[in-house]
Design brief:
four-stranded antiparallel beta sheet, 66% helix, two-stranded antiparallel ribbon, alpha+beta, globular
Amino acid sequence: MNNKIKKILPQILTLLFVILIFGFFTFNAQVNMDNRGIDFGFGFLKQEASFDIQFSLVEYDGLDPYWWAYVAALLNTLLVASLGIILCTILGVIVGVARLSPNYLIRNAAAWYVEFFRNIPLLLQIFFWYYAALRALPLPQDADLLLGISYLTIKGFYIPAMIWNNLNIFLYSLIAAIIGIIIVRTYAKKLQENEGKQLPVFYISLGLLIIFPLFSFIIGGVTLSFELPVLKQLSVTSFTYEGGIGLPPELIALTLALSLYTATFVAECVRAGIQGIGKGQKEAAASIGLNANQILKLVVMPQALRIIIPPTTNQYLNLTKNSSLAAAIAYPDLVLVFAGTALMQTGKAIEIVSITMLTYLSLSLAIAALMNWYNKKIEIKEK
């Protein structure tokens, strides 16, 4: 009994200490707000925002309430974080494998890339892409047509917009294809474990992803057309594009900087994971006739993932939080729109900062939970 008390007592005292500290600062903040006549509350979220957002994934104007401005800014943050994670993962894996290449040129090119981009502050890289690289692009009226469908200008990247008919049927076909892929992969895994036979899972999965959506066009009445961007003159010297989708230069610069910077750390995680697999594993695989690509795909990477995933998760979290640097180039993310403009207009500093902090905390916990689930799923289980 005494041992249990000795173990529990320090934890109880620590919890009480944390509660007292939190209570002290909360009480102190409330007293200061009362002295200055500042009301605490979240009623302002229903008030009219009265400001515009330059780029938004949802329809928004200044007549919408603050909570809708928060949603628009949050979606912009999720967009750049998602694009950054996808691109840095692809580039990081390629560079990480290239760093171990027997080819001298490839190996050293990958090493120089890592050393160059990871040792320059991220904010400076954002400034470079935004103020130097993208500012050198032509004006809309001087831009050349790329691939016959898009324009890359100083005002952004303009691409065709997809116009769908019966989009829901197409989405159902994709869901059916994904379910089919899961079934095939599960069956293939059991077949390999029980009988040692391998199915061409990649080609079967690719076929399902093509056949099911194709049937939605042939049978389901799904149609797809493209709306191309068209140059429009606003005034004597001002031009822009109508139609299509316009990606602002702020989004492009931020995505490039975050991806190139974080990919260097992901590459090092991949390299460490591959090097963590014993040389005997590769030699044993080569002895049964596997080539270098098969050894990497079937032997090395499945084992290396358990080493790669935990540190890579940290890099995903860093990228998501580093996206808040978007405010430096006026990309309308959560920090600029909500913790910036909305805070200055309402004066609700405690409420808005608390919501912003809680949002980033929730995003980080969600990413960590997803990656921990995946890490648990791929771990090697002894039978």
